[in-house]
Amino acid sequence: MAVDEALLSNFKDEDLPILRLYRWEPSLSLGRFSNLNDTLDLNTLEKQNTSFVRRMTGGGILIHGGDLSYSIVLPKESLKGISVKKSYHYLCSFLIELYKKLGLNANFSQNLNIESSKSNICMEANEPYDIIINSKKIGGNAQRYTKETLFQHGSIPINLDTKLFQNIFLEDIDLKNLTTLNKIAKNITYKELSNILVESFAQSFNIKLVNDTLNKLEQQSVDKLLICKYSTKRWNIDAK
Hints:
By secondary structure, this protein is of the alpha+beta class. The protein has helices at residues 2-9, 36-39, 42-47, 84-91, 93-101, 190-205, 216-230, 233-236, and strands spanning 18-23, 27-30, 51-54, 62-64, 67-75, 106-108, 131-133, 136-137, 140-145, 149-157.
């Protein structure tokens, strides 16, 4: 999460748009305004040594550990004339293409006339541009805007060890219902999924991708954010 924020805060208008791919250890990511005390058993979290981190984006609590995540950073000017809601439709089009390449019939919740709903837990909520496969939501996506820049990140679940997280929620949630690629009979490795994602992204936006690494300024920002923000109780628990 420190890397995501560093990429956003250091992005300049003349920079090339960024696509970042990354993985997680078994953990939770919390939305910017998630209330832990209403949703999670903090004593159980501590006893089980379950890792968690608060994101800079909104949305609910998301379970990680068997997923591939992505981040996109680009100038807002490149989406001029597209509303915030419709920007999800535009930017998530590569995910629809990805699932299509996997032989899956994916569609946006809005196109299926699924009623919107709210929840502190990401997979229990439903937004118009959530992606649905076999009548179930798969993954999640969230955005953050600055004055000149748009940031979006999201997650594609391959598999999930629900036993690790079964006892940490205060709300009544059935983790067995969470959809993953493995559950819908798509056995795939991280490398295979990454390659298909990159191909889908390039085709969807008619672009060529170039490999890159963090520059010196970005890495310095990561180091500072990790120590001063994303490793602190003040941010992760108190949201300050």
